[in-house]
Each structure stands twice: as C-alpha cells, then as structure tokens.
C-alpha cells in the first residue's frame, strides 16, 4: 500500500526538533501535506529537511498571526477573487475633508512655520525595498543622483533635508535643544546590504549612525491554487517559493521591532512615511506636518491635484450602508466605475477647478504616533491585504503562475474606527511630486501631456520647482525652453539647486534674498552652505558656492 504524504512526514519526525514538529503539525492541519510528498526516508537529505523547517519558522514568525493566519486569509481572498466579489460592495464614495494649499500664500506660510516647530517631535520612515531595475539600473534606487549638478543621491538629499528640519526646529526652542530626528529605512533582501554600504561609506551623510535604523522586510509564501496550497521552488523540493509582500509591511515591522514603542515613550508625536525617489517631497513636508498638528489629524495623506480618470489613485471617503466609513486611496481604474454605480452617472469628472474633486494620492503619509500605536497594538501591525492571481482561463480554477498576498502602506486607514481623524493635504504637483519610476524607453512611450516619471523628468522638475520658488520670492528667473532628452520633451529651466541647510522652507528662501536678483535660462547656480545671501545678483553663467558652517557669504 502506497504511503501518504502524512505517513512520509510522520516517518521523519524523529529528525526534527520539538519546535519543528509543532510547525509540521500546523502544516498538516492547514492541509499542506503536499509539501512532503517527495520526501525520502530519514537518513536521506536530513539537513535539507531541517533547513526547510528553518524557512517555515521564518515565514511563520515574520507574519502577524503566523503562517496559519496567512493561509486562512489567502483562502478567503482567493475565494472572493474567484467569485468576482466587489471589494467596494455596499460603499458609497464621497469627497473627504482636507486642506488644499496654495504655495507661498499666508495660509501656506503659517502651516509651514507650524510644521517646522513640530518637526523635532517627528520620526521619518523611508520605504526603500526596491532595486532600480524598472529604471534600467541594477543598483538601489536611493543611490541614484537626484540631479546632475551636484550629483546628490536621493538618500543623501533625504538625510540632509531631515537634518535641516532638525536644525530649523531646534532654533525655535528657547535654551538648548538636543533633538535628533530618527530615520528608519525599510529594506529587503535585495537592498539591505547595499543600503548599509551606501550609508557607511558616506559617514551616514552627516547623520549620527544612532539616528538611523534599518528594518529588513521578509518575503511571504507563494500559493499555487485557490485552496492556498504553498508553492515549492521549481528546482528545490525543500524550499518554499517566496515573493515580496508589499510596502504595507512597514507597519508590522515598526510594531514588532519595538521601534514605534520606543518613539512613543520618548515623547515623539509624528511618523512621516515616504518613498524612495521623489526629489521634491521635502519641499512639501513642513507645511503638511503643519496641517497635521493644526487640524489634529491622526492620518494625513499628502496629495496632488489630479485630472479626472488620470492614472493615479484618488483619496476618497467610502461610507457603507451599515454606517461604517473610511478615508482611503481608491485606484483610478476602480474609482470611476464605483462612482457610476453609486449615483454619479458621469463617473469621475473634473470640477469647476479643472481637476477631479478626489485628490491624487502620492503615497506619503503623516500619522500621529499615539493613535497609530493603539491601532497597531489592536491589529498586531497587520494591514488589509489583497491577492491578484493570474488565471489560466475564465473558469478561474488554475493559475498561470504562483501568486501571493500583498499589502500597501497607504491601506493602513482601512481598519480605523469612525472616530479616527483622517484627512489630506493637497499641494501643486510641481512642488511636491516628481517620482523617478520609468526607464527612458518606457518614458518615451508615455502619451503626450502625461508625466514621464523618469530620471530625466525628475531632474528637470527639481530645476523647475527651485526656479518657481525663487520667482515667488522676487527673483527674476528666465522663462524655460522646451528641449528633448532621451526622446522626452521637457521644460528646461535655469539649473538651480541648493542644499537643504540653505533653506528648508519658503520663509528661509525669502530671508536669503534681497534686492533685484536675476538669472538667465542657460545659467546654473548651486548653493551649498547655510549662511549664503544673494543681494542684487545678476547671473549669466555658472555660480557654485561652497561655505562651511559659520561662514557668512554675501553675493551682490
């Protein structure tokens, strides 16, 4: 009589530790006996068998609730996917409340000042688990230069921006201020060692090593069918196939590592989450943090105006017929049909402002630590997941390839109670959003008028934003010209860059300028120092100013 997979496993229990036997029983209970079908008798491949359970232990401990919870959730979500269940069934969309800011007006300046005051009570979390393969680059994305004048990489720019905020915030405190704003970087197997190397070889770009903590994201098990049977590696019967779980893991990592608890006990009030290649983000951070503290938002999503049906998710209030409500990101391809199905026959359309009333989500979040800690204590850090299997045919009974559960950082509000204060802050895209996602070939195929989101467009967006900021401060900045780089037509402004320590807010920019300053279109200026003042400067050419801390430089 042929032995079953269960028999095969039972024969091998003697080579396993008590903890491994417990995991084996859990797998059998969760109907995963197929994993042992091809195991030989004890004495053959015993080290490989124990290594298999080492991996199972890792998968079990890194997921909130363990592997059994992962399999149970997977079965539920796969059943919903097969039946075509609408995740928004019973929900009606409406426009949530939030703050729409106009750069440089009195309201903006007040929020910016409030944000700087609050910054010393903040912590930053950079989600940086990805490589630059989509960009045609095989390194970590945060090592890419954000622009070609100073060749400052994204990670250096982010750290220098946090240090500039730390310094500006401390200057507002009477007496001594020893605040050190912490930075957590979520890495992955692909990026961890290279991120460590980048930091260590550059002396952490001026930040104290004790301010920076890396949390490595683990992968999750792949699934081969609607019954959530775990997938084995094609060429290794002792290895579960795994894939990334998504950037939503950042919440469980902050909770399980104890980092969030330490921040809370240290009296910090805010956590700011951001992603790896948006060179403009910190121009929007002070005012957005000011909105959070002024409006007392538990969750504040940074957003930009979006055109109706534009390929960017919309921040939406969803109210269920049973009374539940939440403010979350709804993907653009779901928002329009949802609106049409709930009493909006035209779907997602532009308002009189020329934009959709549902602002565009840019995946940057500000959370208040107290309520955040309470919620993660309740959920164990788990975030609502989804599954996206690729089916072989319309019967939806078999997959083309293995799938897995995924989660997104911005779905955190899905489990919040109705009493949670969830809002958004909208700023112009030119100021806040220029992600670097696409390689030149893919960017060149983007329909005319849509953003390229390439390294080329990201760099040009930095020069444009700095030019427009100087203009608002009274600087006479020449008009841009249209040029084509890497088959992408872009506006080319004067190449203007400055280190964050020179000015992290618009108020600081204005304080560093006086008189009648001007710059021609083909000119370049790079300002690298805190106390550099421009008075009646007329620039037609290149000016690069380096100044050490404590040295005051004035150009007129």
TrEMBL record:
One of its GO terms (biological process) is UDP-N-acetylglucosamine biosynthetic process. It holds the Pfam family UDPGP. GO terms for molecular function: UDP-N-acetylglucosamine diphosphorylase activity; UTP-monosaccharide-1-phosphate uridylyltransferase activity. It comes from the Eukaryota. Its cofactor is Mn(2+); Mg(2+). It is an enzyme of class 2 (transferase). The keyword Transferase applies. Transmembrane segments: none annotated. InterPro entries: Nucleotide-diphossugar_trans, UDP-sugar_pyrophosphorylase, UDPGP_fam. It catalyses: a monosaccharide 1-phosphate + UTP + H(+) = a UDP-monosaccharide + diphosphate. Keywords: Nucleotidyltransferase, Transferase. The keyword Transferase applies. Its EC number is 2.7.7.64. Belongs to the USP family. This is UTP-monosaccharide-1-phosphate uridylyltransferase.
């Amino acid at each position: 009589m042929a032995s079953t997979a269960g028999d095969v496993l039972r024969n091998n229990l003697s080579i396993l530790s008590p903890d491994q036997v417990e995991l084996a029983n859990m797998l059998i209970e969760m109907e995963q006996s197929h994993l042992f079908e091809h195991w030989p008798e004890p004495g053959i491949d015993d080290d490989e068998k124990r290594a298999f359970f080492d991996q199972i232990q890792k998968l079990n401990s890194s997921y909130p609730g363990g592997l059994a919870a992962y399999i149970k959730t997977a079965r539920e979500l796969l059943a919903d996917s097969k039946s075509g269940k609408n995740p928004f069934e019973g929900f009606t969309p409406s426009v949530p409340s939030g703050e729409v800011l106009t750069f440089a007006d009195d309201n903006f300046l007040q929020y910016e000042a409030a944000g700087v005051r609050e910054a010393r009570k903040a912590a930053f979390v950079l989600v940086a688990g990805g490589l630059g393969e989509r960009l045609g680059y095989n390194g970590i994305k945060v090592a890419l230069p954000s622009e070609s004048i100073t060749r400052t990489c994204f990670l250096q720019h982010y750290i220098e921006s946090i240090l500039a905020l730390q310094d500006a915030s401390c200057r507002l405190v009477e007496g001594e201020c020893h605040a050190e704003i912490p930075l957590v970087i979520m890495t992955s197997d692909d990026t961890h060692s290279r991120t460590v190397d980048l930091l260590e070889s550059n002396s952490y770009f001026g930040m104290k090593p004790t301010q920076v903590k890396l949390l490595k994201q683990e992968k999750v098990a792949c699934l081969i069918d609607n019954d959530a049977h775990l997938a084995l590696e094609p060429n290794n019967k002792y290895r579960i196939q795994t894939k990334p779980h998504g950037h939503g893991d950042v919440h469980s990592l902050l909770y399980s590592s104890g980092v969030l608890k330490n921040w809370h006990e240290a009296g910090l009030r805010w956590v700011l989450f951001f992603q790896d290649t948006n060179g403009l983000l910190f121009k929007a951070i002070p005012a957005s943090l000011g909105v959070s503290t002024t409006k007392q938002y538990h969750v504040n999503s940074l957003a930009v105006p979006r055109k109706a049906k534009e390929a960017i998710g919309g921040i939406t209030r969803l109210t269920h017929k049973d009374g539940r409500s939440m403010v979350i990101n709804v993907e653009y391809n779901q928002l329009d049909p949802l609106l049409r199905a709930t009493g909006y026959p035209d779907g997602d359309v532009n308002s009189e402002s020329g934009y959709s009333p549902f602002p565009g989500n840019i995946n940057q979040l500000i959370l208040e630590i107290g309520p955040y800690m309470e919620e993660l204590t309740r959920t164990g850090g788990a975030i609502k997941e989804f599954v996206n299997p690729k089916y072989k045919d319309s019967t939806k009974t078999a997959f083309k390839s293995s799938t897995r559960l995924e989660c997104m950082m911005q779905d955190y509000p899905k489990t919040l109670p109705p009493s949670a204060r969830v809002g958004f802050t909208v700023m112009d895209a030119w100021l806040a959003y220029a992600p670097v996602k696409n390689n030149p070939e893919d960017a060149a195929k983007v329909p005319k008028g849509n953003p390229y989101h390439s390294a080329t467009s990201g760099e040009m967006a930095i020069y444009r934003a700095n030019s427009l900021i100087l203009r608002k401060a009274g600087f006479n900045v020449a008009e841009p010209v249209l040029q084509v780089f890497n088959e992408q037509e872009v506006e080319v402004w004067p190449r203007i860059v400055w280190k964050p320590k020179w000015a992290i807010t618009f108020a600081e920019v204005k304080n560093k300028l006086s008189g009648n300053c001007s710059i021609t279109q083909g000119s370049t200026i790079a300002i690298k120092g805190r106390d550099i003042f421009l008075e009646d400067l007329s620039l037609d050419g290149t000016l690069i100013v380096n100044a050490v801390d404590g040295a005051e430089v004035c150009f007129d």
